[in-house]
């Protein structure tokens, strides 16, 4: 429904009520789950969970859980390459499983809940052009398939990061340096495995005209931000007395957040109308949360806070999201704007330049913090 107005084949003057259609689809989906669930049910759930805008996190988790359970009961978690079935059916089964993995891991990052699929529970191979394209595929189709392949393999890297975040039994005081190195190595090896064209997408922001490329770059920057925050969390546990090493970690995280801000500023109409994972919206709230808290930690007065580089970056992100919302109807920034637009404005226009920062810290704490941030309590000990 979100792409209706951009389709040349659909009448723009007869735009249907998306809320009504959404409710009808959900009602039909649950009826099918109860009466005769099958592969088509899983596809319907993927379309439902991947729909925009995101309206119910709990319902998305419930539906995804049902899809994962149903997929495993139908054997979609097993490698079908050597099975005695047609090639189109093999490809369909694998594509469904890849889509489930992508939604499971990125919903986990956005919602702050552990992923439901474990790597040792499936043996479906990573996607390749053989399974995604036909022999007469155009160059555009091959490029789009390459972006999807990169997204799926990046999701595998994210899974390793999530294992660290959600492991409640690990002793993080032991081998913390090795943990940080392992995570950095995983992301670095993934970057090296990419083709030249795809590597330019994630490292330099080139070729964003390829379908799914802008979403892939945002996913990469979100993973990079998560990695920096994990490293900062480890550093804060090791350093009882703040020093240059800790300061450097803060700078690295801020730069990772800044890359997300710059990406949003560079998005054009074509990029905004491209495919986006709905949970990408949480990348903006996560980035701005860290920027605001960095600003609050490093400044002691409202006057100094208004001049903070971190707060200016947060303002730039808000301005860009508002521009995309007003000019293109882009909905992915709605959550961030609803939570932080007023907060940023109040921090920038303090009535008294000499007001103390704790007054604004209370303002920040009254705002809803993205759930994943609660898993990094050490980052916010100053509050």
Automatic annotation (TrEMBL):
> Which domain of life, per UniProt?
Eukaryota
UniProt key word Nucleus = yes
State the name under which the record lists this protein.
Transcriptional regulatory protein
Q: Which GO terms describe its cellular component?
A: nucleus
Annotated GO molecular function terms are: DNA binding; zinc ion binding
Quote the PANTHER family the UniProt record gives.
Answer: GLUCOSE TRANSPORT TRANSCRIPTION REGULATOR RGT1-RELATED-RELATED, ZN(II)2CYS6 TRANSCRIPTION FACTOR (EUROFUNG)
Q: What does the UniProt keyword field contain?
A: Nucleus
InterPro entries assigned to the protein according to its UniProt record, in alphabetical order: Carb_Metab_Trans_Reg, XnlR_reg_dom
Q: Does the keyword Transferase apply?
A: no
Q: Which residues form the Xylanolytic transcriptional activator regulatory domain?
A: 60-133
What biological-process GO terms show up in the record?
DNA-templated transcription; nitrogen catabolite activation of transcription from RNA polymerase II promoter
Q: Which Pfam families match?
A: Fungal_trans (PF04082)
């Amino acid at each position: 429904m979100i792409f209706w107005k951009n389709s040349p084949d659909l009448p723009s003057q007869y735009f249907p009520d998306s809320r009504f259609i959404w409710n009808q689809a959900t009602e039909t989906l649950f009826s099918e789950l109860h009466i005769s669930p099958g592969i088509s049910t899983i596809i319907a759930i993927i379309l439902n969970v991947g729909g925009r805008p995101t309206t119910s996190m709990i319902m998305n988790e419930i539906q995804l859980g049902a899809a994962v359970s149903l997929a495993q009961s139908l054997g979609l978690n097993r490698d079908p390459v050597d099975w005695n079935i047609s090639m189109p059916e093999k490809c369909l089964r694998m594509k469904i499983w890849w889509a489930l993995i992508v939604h499971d891991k990125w919903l986990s990052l956005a919602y702050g809940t552990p992923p439901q699929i474990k790597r040792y529970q499936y043996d479906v191979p990573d996607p390749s052009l053989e399974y995604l394209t036909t022999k007469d595929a155009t160059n555009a189709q091959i490029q789009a398939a390459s972006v999807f392949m990169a997204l799926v393999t990046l999701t595998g890297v994210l899974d390793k990061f999530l294992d660290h975040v959600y492991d409640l039994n690990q002793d993080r005081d032991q081998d913390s340096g090795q943990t940080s190195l392992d995570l950095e190595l995983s992301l670095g090896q993934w970057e090296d495995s990419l083709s030249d064209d795809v590597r330019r997408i994630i490292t330099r922001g080139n070729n964003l005209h390829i379908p799914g490329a802008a979403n892939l770059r945002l996913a990469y920057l979100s993973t990079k931000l998560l990695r920096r925050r994990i490293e900062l969390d480890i550093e804060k546990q090791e350093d009882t007395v703040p020093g240059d090493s800790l300061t450097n970690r803060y700078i690295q995280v801020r730069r990772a957040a800044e890359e997300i801000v710059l990406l949003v500023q560079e998005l054009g109409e074509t990029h905004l109308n491209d495919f986006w994972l709905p949970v990408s919206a949480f990348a903006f709230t996560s980035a701005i949360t860290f920027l605001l808290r960095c600003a609050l930690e490093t400044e002691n007065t409202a006057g100094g806070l208004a001049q903070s580089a971190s707060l200016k970056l947060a303002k730039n992100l808000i301005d860009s999201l508002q521009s995309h919302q007003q000019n293109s109807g882009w909905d992915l920034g709605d959550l961030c704007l609803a939570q932080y637009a007023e907060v940023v404005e109040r921090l920038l226009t303090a009535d008294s330049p000499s007001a103390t920062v704790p007054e604004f810290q209370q303002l920040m704490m009254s705002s809803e913090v993205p759930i994943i941030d609660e898993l990094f309590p050490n980052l916010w000990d100053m509050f």
